[in-house]
């Protein structure tokens, strides 16, 4: 079982504490959603899990499959099976989607076997086409420069394409619904749902309930001021949709 | 960076720091029947001109005070026999399956091969030693027409002393299918290597030509000075690739100019990864209506390398197109200079000129100077230019790493991506591979 265990996590950026003791456990096969108003630390959690150098963990631990994730570089975390779908994927001019994905796959193969010569090109092409078809993507997408001039929808689709190709054990989706129209949202969600299953743990980070109509979470958590203050089932998301975050804030104002 | 000047010290420094002049004498000018007067007059120019100093506009960013000019000597005839031989990889074709001809220029000698069928068509591809005997009139007619001996100190020196040279002549309407290749191999301590290339493509003819200059790494300084003279005739076509991988002990200077006649087309590719210091002048003269020229440059410096490339796109006739893209990456404490100018002469209407220089600075102490320029004396033209100096940014690297790609490979991907627009302009797989190899080698240092 691939567990992700976050225990009492404190994270600062430039000496400002953002996460103040966050704890959460995600098991394989589970879909968790973290919701919360802007500025409560949702993206900080996503970046910290992936190991972004600007985020400093001052206290607490993150264990994945029993290993201390905090000791690993971002690329090592990825090869262990952690995947982050970025809210704002960066453009890499001059590097095609295909070239990039082949490098990512071959890095995995080489980490396992330093002698590995890389995935044969016909096999890679077949794999990529299969995944692009699943996400209803035009095949010439493979030859475009990564995220360079992509529309919002294309960027998010490219993130899910990467997820489908790299087969993570835990996927963190950071505001994957932002900037998507309803059709794109459906395609992206269908992609995530097709990948979800007993092998994959999913953490959906979102401001709005909208995405959760398409990706059904088993657990919903509310993040407020750097801590999880409410946890529940899917009904919690609906309650938030109806009543907003104000009641959570009022309820926890005194304790915070 | 500069030390604080002290009055007493700076006075001593001044007298010490001026570059010593060359110790060549008139006796070093090669004896020749055909080229005697050309060389004699070049020698006069050489004596008249002084070594460039940083107060000369073109040399403002390239300082020659450490050039050990007086140490350099001409190689004796046959000197190459006691020096390291040309490595095999330099002799392999970079374009196409097979060479139509190959010339190796060595210290004190040269080797020539040319496909017989090309020779029968009247194609001349030979070294100066042979050309002086067998094609003396043609050589005499063409030499010094495009790059003049008095274009500069180094042009004069090369004109006067270059015994190593290449004459490539493609007669009217002859299409040379197989690429021609030459290698200038310059091993040897304290040696001065001179090369003079003349490429003359007649009306309606076409050819692809690759020239490489290289040396092993040595501990004692050496120098190369070169001239490249190119003539692309009416409706003729030349693809010219020049690659430079001199050792880090080599001071490298060149004056190059291409003249393109009406309807002619030049695709000119530069690749530079070597030398201690390089100063290169490359001029494109679009002389006839509808002439086209494209200049594509790739460079990658590291350590304390200094690479200075001066380019000029001269539009002398209407309806001409010039398109320049130079891209470079820099590591360590290295420095690059690119200074470019598009000149549009009066009456050169409907000119389409483009120049761009992009730099990627990989280390804090590396520095790239990028100075574009336009001088337009016609009123119906389109000229655009751009210059950028950027750094390797953290976010793209983090993104790549988050997909399992280790730091060094991530850097390599970003750098390769940066160079991709140049690679797209190079129609030769072998040349692209050479550049990719250079990127790998430089990044892993």
- Mean of pLDDT of chain B: 93
Q: Looking at the structure, what is the overall shape of chain B?
A: globular
Q: Which strands sit side by side, in order, in the main sheet of chain A?
A: 6-7-8-3-9-10
- Radius of gyration of chain B from the CA trace? 22 Å
Quickly name the level 1 CATH class of the largest domain in chain A.
Alpha Beta
Give the helix/strand class of chain A.
Answer: alpha/beta
What is the share of helical residues of chain B? 10-25%
Biggest sheet details of chain B: 10 strands, mixed
- The best one-word shape of chain A is globular
Quick synopsis:
The complex is a heterodimer of chains A (256) and B (445). Chain A is 36% helix and 25% strand. Chain A has 256 residues and is α/β, with parallel strands linked by helices.
Could you describe the 3D structure shown?
- The complex is a heterodimer of chains A (256) and B (445).
- Helix content of chain A is 36%, strand content 25%.
- Chain A has 256 residues and is of the alpha/beta class.
- Chain A has two domains: 4-89 and 150-253, Rossmann fold (3-Layer(aba) Sandwich); 92-144, no CATH class.
- In chain A, the strands form two sheets. In chain A, strands 6-7-8-3-9-10 form a six-stranded mixed sheet, sandwiched between helices.
- In chain A, helix 3 packs parallel to helix 5 (152-166).
- Chain A is globular and about 60 Å long.
- The model of chain A has no long low-confidence stretch (mean pLDDT 92).
- With 445 residues, chain B is an alpha/beta fold.
- Chain B has a domain at 28-288.
- Chain B has helices at 7-17, 36-48, 88-91, 116-120, 128-134, 136-142, 153-161, 394-401, 407-423, 429-443, and strands at residues 101-106, 109-114, 124-127, 165-170, 180-185, 192-201, 206-214, 222-232, 237-245, 250-260, 265-272, 277-286, 292-301, 306-315, 321-330, 335-344, 351-361, 367-371, 374-376, 381-391.
- Chain B has a ten-stranded mixed sheet. In chain B, strands 3, 4, 6, 8, 10, 12, 14, 16, 18 and 19 form a ten-stranded mixed sheet that branches.
- In chain B, strand 1 (101-106) and strand 2 form a beta hairpin.
- In chain B, helix 5 (128-134) packs across helix 6 (136-142) and helix 9 runs antiparallel to helix 10 (429-443).
- Residues 1-16 of chain B have low confidence and may be disordered.
- The chains are: A alpha/beta (256), B alpha/beta (445).
- Chain A binds chain B through residues 50-53, 73-75, 77-79, 83-84, 86, 89-95, 99-100, 103-104, 107-108, 111, 145, 162, 166, and chain B through 394-396, 398-407, 409-410, 413-414, 416-421.
């Amino acid at each position: 079982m691939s567990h992700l265990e976050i225990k009492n996590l404190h994270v600062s950026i430039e000496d400002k504490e953002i996460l103040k003791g966050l704890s959460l456990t995600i098991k394989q096969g589970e879909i968790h959603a973290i919701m919360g108003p802007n500025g409560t630390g949702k993206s900080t959690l996503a970046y910290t899990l992936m190991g972004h150098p600007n985020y400093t963990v001052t206290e607490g631990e993150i264990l994945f499959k029993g290993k201390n994730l905090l000791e690993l570089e971002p690329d090592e975390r990825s090869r262990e099976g952690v995947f982050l779908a970025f809210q704002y994927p960066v453009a890499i001019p001059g590097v095609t989607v295909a070239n990039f994905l082949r490098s990512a796959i071959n890095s995995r193969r080489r980490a396992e076997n330093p002698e590995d010569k890389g995935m044969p090109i016909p096999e890679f092409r077949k794999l990529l086409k299969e995944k692009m078809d699943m996400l209803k993507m035009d095949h010439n997408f493979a030859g475009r420069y990564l995220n360079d001039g992509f529309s919002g929808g294309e960027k998010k689709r490219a993130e899910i394409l990467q997820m489908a190709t790299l087969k993570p054990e835990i996927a963190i989706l950071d505001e994957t619904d932002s900037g998507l129209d309803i059709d794109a949202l459906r395609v992206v969600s269908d992609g995530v749902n097709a990948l979800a299953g007993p092998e994959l743990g999913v953490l959906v980070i979102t401001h709005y309930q909208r995405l959760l109509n398409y990706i059904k979470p088993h657990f919903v958590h509310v993040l407020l001021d750097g801590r999880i203050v409410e946890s529940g089932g899917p009904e919690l998301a609906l309650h938030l949709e109806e009543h907003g975050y104000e009641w959570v804030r009022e309820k926890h104002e005194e304790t915070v | 960076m500069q030390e604080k000047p002290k009055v007493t010290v700076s006075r001593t420094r001044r007298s010490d720091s001026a570059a010593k002049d060359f110790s060549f004498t008139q006796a070093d000018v090669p004896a020749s029947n055909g080229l005697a007067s050309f060389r004699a007059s070049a020698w006069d120019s050489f004596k008249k001109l002084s070594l460039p100093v940083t107060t000369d506009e073109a040399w403002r960013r390239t300082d020659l005070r450490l050039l050990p000019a007086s140490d350099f000597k001409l190689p004796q005839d046959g000197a190459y026999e006691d020096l390291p031989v040309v490595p095999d990889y330099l002799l392999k074709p970079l374009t196409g399956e097979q060479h139509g001809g190959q010339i190796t220029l060595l210290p004190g000698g040269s080797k020539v091969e040319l496909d017989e069928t090309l020779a029968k068509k009247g194609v001349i591809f030979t070294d100066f030693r042979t050309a002086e005997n067998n094609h003396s009139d043609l050589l005499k007619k063409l030499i010094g027409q495009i790059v003049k001996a008095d274009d500069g100190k180094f042009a004069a020196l090369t004109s006067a002393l270059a015994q190593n040279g290449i004459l490539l002549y493609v007669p009217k309407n002859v299409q040379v299918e197989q690429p021609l290749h030459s290698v200038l191999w310059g091993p040897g301590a304290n040696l001065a290597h001179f090369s003079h290339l003349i490429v003359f493509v007649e009306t309606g003819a076409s050819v692809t030509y690759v020239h490489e200059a290289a040396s092993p790494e040595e501990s004692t300084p050496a120098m190369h000075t070169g001239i490249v003279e190119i003539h692309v005739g009416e409706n003729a076509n030349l693809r010219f690739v020049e690659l430079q991988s001199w050792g880090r002990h080599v001071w490298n200077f060149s004056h190059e100019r291409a003249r393109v006649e009406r309807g002619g087309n030049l695709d000119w590719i530069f690749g530079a990864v070597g030398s201690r210091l390089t100063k290169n002048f490359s001029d494109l003269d679009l002389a006839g209506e509808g002439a086209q020229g494209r200049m594509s440059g790739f460079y990658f410096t590291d350590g304390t390398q200094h690479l200075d490339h001066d380019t000029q796109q001269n539009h002398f006739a209407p309806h001409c197109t010039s398109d320049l893209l130079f891209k470079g990456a820099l590591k360590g404490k290295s420095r690059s200079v690119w200074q470019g100018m598009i000149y549009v002469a009066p009456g050169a209407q409907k000119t389409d000129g483009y120049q761009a220089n992009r730099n990627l600075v990989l280390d804090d102490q590396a520095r790239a100077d990028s100075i574009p320029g336009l001088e337009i004396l016609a009123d119906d033209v389109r000229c655009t230019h751009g210059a950028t100096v950027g750094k390797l940014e953290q976010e793209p690297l983090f993104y790549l790493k988050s997909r399992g790609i280790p730091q060094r490979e991530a850097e390599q991907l970003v750098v390769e991506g940066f160079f991709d627009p140049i690679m797209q302009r190079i129609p030769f797989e072998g040349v692209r591979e050479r550049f990719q190899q250079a990127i790998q080698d430089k990044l892993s240092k």
